[in-house]
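Forwarding these from the shared drive since the link keeps breaking.
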Amino acid sequence: QEKVHDAAKQRKILRIICSVLVAIAIWVYVDEEKTVNVKMSVNDLPVEFANEDTTLADNNLMLLSGYNTTVDLVLKGPRKVLWKLNKDEIRIVADTAGIQETGMQSLTYDVVFPNNVPQSQIQVEKASIYAINVTVGELYTKEVPIKCEVSGKIAEGYIAEEIVLDPVALVLRAQRDDLL
């Protein structure tokens, strides 16, 4: 009777092992083939402003506020794709190229994912804000000449060439009050 009991115990262990293997196989199949979408929250993503130093500055405009704006996102996509995401590599980019005048402006933004993540498989299901509000002011420019003063004497037996400055002036850009 002890042999029968041992055989039953071995069959029971074999059934448990088979059940676990089948469960794992089903889980892998569903995860890979059926692409179950899951959600992931990403908080406090800082907003970057594109074309601020180029197009906006060329229009003699500058951002006065909006730099501290952050966005919280709820992303939806396949588990294996979302696992690849690193929060520090997700970027929120607002383009300032369309701004033509001073005052309060509202900018849309793009969510930029790292290159190793297929962007087509990830959806932004929810965002804490959908537009970035900024204040735009006039950008003033002032050219400041650079002067060089040489102190000391040339050591005996040496000659010094004349100093050449490059650039000869700095171009400062800021609000009017800051430049004054």
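-- next protein --
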Amino acid sequence: MSVDTANRAERAAELRNALVDEIIADHAAKGLAMRADVERAMRKVPRDLFTPGVALEEAYRNTAIITVRRGEESISSVSAPYLIAEMLGQAADALGGLEGRDVLEIGSGGYNASLLRELVGPAGSVTTVDVLPEVAERASACLAAAGYHDVTVVCADAQHPIEPGRRYDLIIVTAGAWDIPPAWREQLTDDGVLVVPLRTFGMTRSWALRRSGDRLVSHSHRLCGFVSVQGDGAHQMRYADIADGVHLRLDENQRIDPAAIAGLLAQPREEAWAGVSLPPRTVLADLDLWLAARLTRGPGEFVVLTAQESAIKSGIVAPAWRFGTPAVVGRDAFCYRSALRWTDRMFDLGAYAHGPKAATAAGGMVEHIRAWVDAGCPSPVLCVLPAHTPPGYLPDGVVLQRRHGRIVITFTPDEKRRP
């Protein structure tokens, strides 16, 4: 080994360990703890070998690295390390560990497959599949360069069975999905686990779903974002521009008039507040799904508001999160969850609205927010059933109809988490 190669390897190890330390701190800030087996794998696998042509410092930043673009769209990436760690933790927790497990990864890049190979050990197996030939070829080359010669790389559309008759303890999807094809459930063992970034109401969560007969039931979930699934499972998300730098994400066949909403947004803002005092670790991603489930059943259209930083600085909107905030559009009002209002180290939740009935709309959203707090800030439970399941066999909750299945989201009040 040359001096330059040795120095690079030493520097890569320093950066890798610093990155893992950063991820552990990020987990702790979210109230999570990184599993020891996941930590060992992340300290061992050289991420820089899966990002050829990228500087060492960039390879070990805690962000995604885009590897394939189609025009303006990113269609493949090496996922953000913190998110990889969270999803691997979800998988290992749901299965009680990954050692000896057979794993199918859908959406390949090589890095996550190598981490999985470390976690399953000699008695387990890892198969990684991608629909894009250039991605599969790149994954094969990177895995070989890193010394992972026993990972099986397949170029195929994973909406269909990869190896008919074979089943896996874990299927982990590293691309944003809008639907769950039957092949994913059918390739799981009887108590196998699917970890998938699933889009509902235009908002993505990484769900760990355990198979129970013909249904999948959630074990855990994490906030996340991924490039979209390609191939037969692709589902185009639509956006509507309602002001300079302000957009609405439409993902459930909503029908809106952008010009009419722009007219509402131009009117004076009304606000309402829940009058609560919540700690920083409150999981507001759970509140957003709570709002989606309830606002969808009411008048108006539920949408997701996104905004560029310039639109927020200029005061056009002040959303809770500029990358995706729950909102509802009616004929007489446009309302969304507001930025937080802090007092010392606690915060209050509110709603902003525009239009002739803005005060009523803001007050209505705040009633839903208070109901969530009063219920103990519950987390959602997600169940996926076949598309033909009769209504009487569905769990209570809001139902989203997909081509291949029915997705049911429900909440159970949590007495222990009441503020």
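The mean pLDDT is 93. The longest helix spans residues 3-29.

- D.
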